[in-house]
Amino acid sequence: xxxIYTYCFLVLLCLxxxxxxxxAPQNEEKKESAGTGYLTIKGSDTMVHLVSSWAxxxxxxxxxxxxxxxxxxxxxxxxxxxxxxTDICASSRRINEKEKELASGxxxxxxxxxxxxxGIAVIVHPQNPVxxxxxxQLQGIFxxxxxxxQEVGGANQDLLVFSRESxxxxxxxxxxxxxxxxxxxxxARLLPGTSALVQGVAADTGAIGYVGLGYVKxxxxxxxxxxxxxxxxxxxxxxxxxxxxxxxxxxxxxxxxYTSGEAQGTAKDFxxxxxxxxxxxxxxxxxYVSVMSNENKQ
Length: 298
Hints:
Strand content: 15-25%
CATH class of the largest domain: Alpha Beta
CATH superfamily of the largest domain: Periplasmic binding protein-like II
Order of helices and strands: HEHEHEHEEHEHEHEHEEEHEHHH
Helix content: 40-55%
Structural class: alpha/beta
Largest sheet: 9 strands, mixed
C-alpha cells in the first residue's frame, strides 16, 4: 500500500513540474503577441490624416497588425473610449469633467498623451482682400454681430460663416478661445468634416471658416489663411509652425491621444511610435507642429 501512495505522489509531483514548465512558453508567447492584432482609433476629424499616416507607417513596421482609423469628431471618439468601442481616441481638445465622470462610472480611466501641436487658421476665399482680423472682430463675425465684410475693412458683401458641428473638438476650442464661450450665429452653416468646410469656403468669395493648420498647407491654392492681430491691434500674426510653437499665434492647441488606462500591447507600441523621431517627422510632413524640441529632432 505504501508503494502505491509513493507512486501516486511521484506522479502528481511530475505533473506539477510539467505544468510549471508549460507555463513559461505560454507567457513568452503572450509577450510576443503583444504587438499583433487589430487596433481601432476613432475621433478628431482634424487628426484623421495625421493618425492615418501614423497607422500606415506603423503597419509597415508591424506586418501582423491591422489598424482602423475613423473620424466623426473628438466627442465621438471620447464617447467611443468611454463605451469601449475604440482602443484609442484621437482628440483635438481635452476630455472634460463630465466625460471623465461618465468614464469613471464605467470603470474606465482615460489617460492623456499630447502628440502634436496645431494652430487653428481662419480661412477665407483667395479673392477676399481682407488680410488680418482681431480676436474681437472674429468674435463678432462668428456670433453674428458682424454680418458684412465692409464692417471689417472688406467689400460690401454679406458674410457667409462656416463652422464644424458641435461634436468637433475644433468647434469647441474655437468657441472657448475665440468666442468667449458665446453661441455661434444661427446663420452659420455647420459641416460634418473639415474637407467639406474647405470646399465651402473655396466656393464662395464671402465665406469665412476655420480649420487646422495642416489643412491650410494642403489647400493653399484654394483658400487663404488670414493673420490675427495681437491684443494691441498692431502686429498681425500669421499661422505658422514657429508662431504656434513660440506661443505668439493666439489660436493654437495641443492634439491628444487617449487610452482607457495605461496603454498596453499594440496600443502601447503605437502611442510610443507617435512620439518617436519617425512619428514626429510624420507630424511635420502632415502639416502639424512637432511636440519635440528642435534640438531633439536634429
